[in-house]
Amino acid sequence: MTDRANDVSDDIINHNDVPEELMSVVASLTSERRYVPQWYVYDTRGSEMCEELIRKSKTYKVWQHEYSILQTHADDIASKVSPPAVLVDLGSGASSKTRLVIEAMLKRHGRATFVPVDMAKEFIETRGRQLEKDYPGLTVEPFGGLYMDGVRHVAARKEAKLLLWLGNSFSNISIHQQVKMLQEIRTQLSDGDRLVLGVDMNTDREAVSQAYGHQWISIWRDNLISRFNKDFGGTMDAEKFEYCCEFVENSPDQDEPSCIVLSLASSCKQRVHFETLSLDIDFEDGEKIYFYEGPNTSCKWNLRQLRRLAEKSGFAVDAHWTNDEENYCVICLAPADVIHTSV
Ligand SMILES: C[S@@+](CC[C@H](N)C(=O)[O-])C[C@H]1O[C@@H](n2cnc3c(N)ncnc32)[C@H](O)[C@@H]1O
107: helix, coil or strand? Predict the structure, then answer.
């Protein structure tokens, strides 16, 4: 139907009752720079596979590093908001590390409300029911949707809000959108609210290339392509796409952090048919589908860069905790004016 993806106009795509959020995936796949939105990788199967990998992997250590910090500092984090408080987990997934903060909040406040926010709606609903069984005193109100919709959803609540954004997921937001997104979040928060980010600081090239290597192929290539085929009646052959990982190193003195760039490269010139959309997409040999919207998949920060990020976004660093190796950081941000007036 068309030779170049960017020639695909919306009028020639048959929507065939495809839900709106999935049409946004079609738009990203047919845009000039083809990409997949981050959330699309995490259907229920992708979420389960990812949780299993990140907990067991000997080379991708984000889960372990963050868990060890939360084990020691969950109570400090819970103490940042006054009861009654709502715990909001952006991109909650399985909430496995969040359990430590839930426990600290219940210990401190007696009761708590937990709002997991994630596009993987069914997955967080199932996990939410389990959390309610496991923790008497906890009310779980899952929000299946995009990050910012989740933030707006809780903004008007009277209780203090503790927003968590763990698993280095904030670092997958496009570098060009990060400040804007934090600024938007800032406008939705009150003085007593806090935003806690878990961010990776590991810039060791060897460790990074092992962490993002072939162990991810079954999730980030095979499961992703099977989701494309299921959602859009596609004929994509996973074997005809090569999983690629690149580490882009920036100077630690720059505001822009180093980052990973992940993509799937077509291993030949090929046409893929999506029956549900009545759409063909042609791939040149070597043409890439990037993860995700921006130039980065996963940023690698240092403390100076994090302070600058907070400063540009209307936040100030209230506290931060690193692991023993100092290659992972959990950072608590407060509305800047609150911190300034209290010192
Ligand atoms: C890297 S996983 C992190 C899961 C968990 N927080 C952890 O630390 O283990 C990212 C999660 O964010 C969700 N997600 C990605 N982009 C999203 C978006 N724009 N809005 C809402 N959820 C999103 C995914 O579905 C996935 O569950």
Answer: helix
| Ligand 1 atom nearest to CA at 165 | 6
How far, in Å, is the centroid of ligand 1 from the Cα of 41? Answer: 9
Residue type, 154: V
Q: Does residue 2 carry a pLDDT above 90?
A: no
Ligand 1 site, CB within 6 A: 38-39, 42, 47, 91-93, 97, 117-120, 146-147, 166-167, 169
Amino acid in the structure at residue 48: E
List the residue whose alpha carbon is closest to atom 24 of ligand 1: 39
Q: How far is the CA of 258 from the centre of ligand 1 (A)?
A: 21
Rounded mean pLDDT of 255-277? 96
CB 12 within 8 A of CB 5: no
The answer, yes or no, to whether residue 7 has pLDDT greater than 90, is no
Q: Which string of DSSP letters, residue by residue, matches 28-60?
A: HHTSSS-EE-GGGG-SHHHHHHHHHHHHH-SS-
Structure tokens at 172: 């997958």
Domains and CATH numbers, the chain: 5-56+205-299 (no CATH), 62-203+300-342 (3.40.50.150)
Length of the chain as a residue count = 343
Closest listed residue to residue 99, CA positions, set 70, 133, 139: 70
Q: Which residues of 134-143 are buried (b: 16+ CB within 10 A; e: fewer)?
A: ebeebebebb
Separation CA 168–CA 147 (nearest Å): 14
Q: Please tell me the predicted confidence (pLDDT) of residue 341.
A: 47
Q: Quote the mean pLDDT of the chain.
A: 94
Nearest CA residue ID for atom 7, ligand 1: 167
The residue whose CA is least distant from atom 12 of ligand 1 is 91
pLDDT digits (tens, 9 = 90+) for 41-51: 999 999 999 99
**CA-proximal residue: ligand 1, atom 17 (nearest):** 39
- Distance, in Å, from the CA atom of 234 to the CA atom of 4, rounded to the nearest integer, reads 18
